[in-house]
């Protein structure tokens, strides 16, 4: 078909040289796909290189402890991806003798692997004729064919997957080496086209290889597609972190064991409030919370204005408070030891700049 041929020709001329594209080994392909969920390539690349250096095989990743994995993941966000990555590595290494499932349906059974990731690994590693459908694919197909289906609807993925499958070359001979007519190349091409050319805002349609056949361009609808009606409701939360320091300069941290954001990462003692509170309110809370453990000598704000840390569904308004206490904290940790723990990036940055 003209669409597929033009797309693949564009890809072979314009594709980025990315390390996970130079192999059919499912381990680095799986690693890259997990990392690039909700993450741009430029942001994910250093993490991919760090992980493949620290854990060159799935056995190395499986044998690591979770805190090592979370520390290397620090700053990439969506930390459940890292925890699932580690558990899946252990399953593959210890239960499957290091051999990844060899097809889409079996890949789907892995923890943390959804339809998109399973399709990506199946096509890139095994050249299975299964389409990938991500935000790039929704955008390219909806614009080229003028599909106004709301992509927030559950049925949309099936509709776009069927369209992508119809367009996909079905030649699966000879493994997944890049050629001009196989599923692996087509999937890479359509995602790359969405990432580099058919971008969400203000794409340069004047230089697009499809500018004579794209329905959205002909109908002046490029900025209206894809249609997505669902809006995430953002919750505001107010975090007050207590950076306790004893006379030796040691501090205390705690592990977030509750399910939810930052599960199994570390943080300073936390007072969460309903709104942004002033010095007097937090001071009273600290005196109440710490009076039976420590004698508070002084207290000050590190940041008068809250740091706003935006997550996909929450905006965290964060203040750090220095709390100096008399004597020595039992099991307190020094600044050097503090830096070995995995923290949310906003706390990591605070430690690097202030402690």
Automatic annotation (TrEMBL):
Tell me the GO BP annotations in alphabetical order.
base-excision repair; mismatch repair
Question: Is Protein transport one of the keywords?
Answer: no
Gene3D superfamilies attached to this UniProt entry: Helix-hairpin-Helix base-excision DNA repair enzymes (C-terminal), Hypothetical protein, domain 2, Nucleoside Triphosphate Pyrophosphohydrolase
Q: List the catalytic activities from the record.
A: Hydrolyzes free adenine bases from 7,8-dihydro-8-oxoguanine:adenine mismatched double-stranded DNA, leaving an apurinic site
- Pfam families tied to this protein: HHH, HhH-GPD, NUDIX_4
Cofactor field: [4Fe-4S] cluster
Q: Which residues form the HhH-GPD domain?
A: 35-196
**Entry annotated with the keyword Flavoprotein:** no
Tell me which InterPro entries the record gives.
Answer: A/G_AdeGlyc_MutY, DNA_glycosylase, HhH-GPD_domain, HhH_base_excis_C, HhH_motif, MIG/MutY, MutY_C, NUDIX_hydrolase-like_dom_sf
**Family stated for the protein in its record:** Belongs to the Nth/MutY family.
Provide the function of this protein. Answer: Adenine glycosylase active on G-A mispairs. MutY also corrects error-prone DNA synthesis past GO lesions which are due to the oxidatively damaged form of guanine: 7,8-dihydro-8-oxoguanine (8-oxo-dGTP).
Q: What is its EC number?
A: 3.2.2.31
Q: Which UniProt keywords apply?
A: 4Fe-4S, DNA damage, DNA repair, Glycosidase, Hydrolase, Iron, Iron-sulfur, Metal-binding
What does the entry comment about cofactor binding? Binds 1 [4Fe-4S] cluster.
Q: Where is the signal peptide?
A: none
- Listed name of the protein: Adenine DNA glycosylase
Q: Supply the enzyme class, top level.
A: hydrolase
NCBIfam families attached here? mutY
Q: Name the domain of life.
A: Bacteria
Gene Ontology MF terms? 4 iron, 4 sulfur cluster binding; 8-oxo-7,8-dihydroguanine DNA N-glycosylase activity; adenine/guanine mispair binding; metal ion binding; oxidized purine DNA binding; purine-specific mismatch base pair DNA N-glycosylase activity
**CDD domains membership:** ENDO3c (cd00056), NUDIX_DNA_Glycosylase_C-MutY (cd03431)
């Amino acid at each position: 078909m003209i669409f597929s041929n033009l797309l693949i020709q564009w890809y072979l001329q314009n594709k980025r040289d990315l390390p996970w594209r130079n192999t059919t080994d499912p381990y680095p392909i799986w690693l890259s796909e997990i990392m690039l969920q909700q993450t741009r390539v430029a942001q994910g690349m250093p993490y991919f290189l760090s992980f493949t250096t620290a854990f060159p095989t799935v056995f190395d990743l499986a044998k690591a402890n979770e805190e090592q994995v979370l520390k290397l993941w620090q700053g990439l966000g969506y930390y459940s991806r890292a925890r699932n990555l580690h558990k899946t590595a252990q399953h593959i290494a210890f239960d499957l003798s290091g051999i990844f499932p060899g097809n889409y349906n079996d890949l789907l059974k892995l923890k943390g692997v959804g339809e998109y990731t399973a399709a990506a690994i199946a096509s890139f590693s095994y050249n299975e004729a299964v389409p990938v459908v991500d935000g790039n694919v929704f955008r390219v197909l909806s614009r080229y064919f003028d599909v106004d289906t709301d992509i927030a609807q559950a049925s949309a993925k099936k509709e776009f997957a069927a369209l992508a499958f119809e367009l996909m070359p079905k030649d699966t001979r000879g493994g997944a080496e890049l050629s001009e007519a196989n599923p692996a190349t087509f999937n890479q091409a359509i995602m790359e086209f969405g990432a580099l050319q058919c971008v969400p805002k203000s794409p340069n349609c004047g230089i697009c290889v499809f500018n004579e056949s794209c329905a959205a361009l002909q109908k002046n609808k490029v900025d209206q597609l894809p249609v997505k009606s669902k809006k995430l409701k953002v919750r505001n939360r107010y975090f007050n972190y207590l950076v306790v320091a004893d006379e030796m300069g040691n501090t205390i941290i705690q592990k977030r064991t509750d399910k939810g954001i930052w599960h199994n990462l570390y943080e300073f003692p936390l007072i969460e409030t309903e709104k942004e509170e002033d010095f007097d309110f937090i001071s009273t809370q600290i005196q109440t919370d710490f009076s039976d453990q420590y004698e508070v000598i002084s207290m000050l704000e590190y940041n008068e204005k809250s740091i706003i840390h935006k997550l996909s569904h929450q905006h965290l308004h964060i203040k750090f408070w220095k709390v100096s206490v008399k004597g020595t904290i039992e099991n307190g940790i020094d600044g050097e030891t503090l830096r070995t723990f995995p923290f949310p990036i906003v706390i990591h940055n605070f430690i690097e700049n202030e402690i």
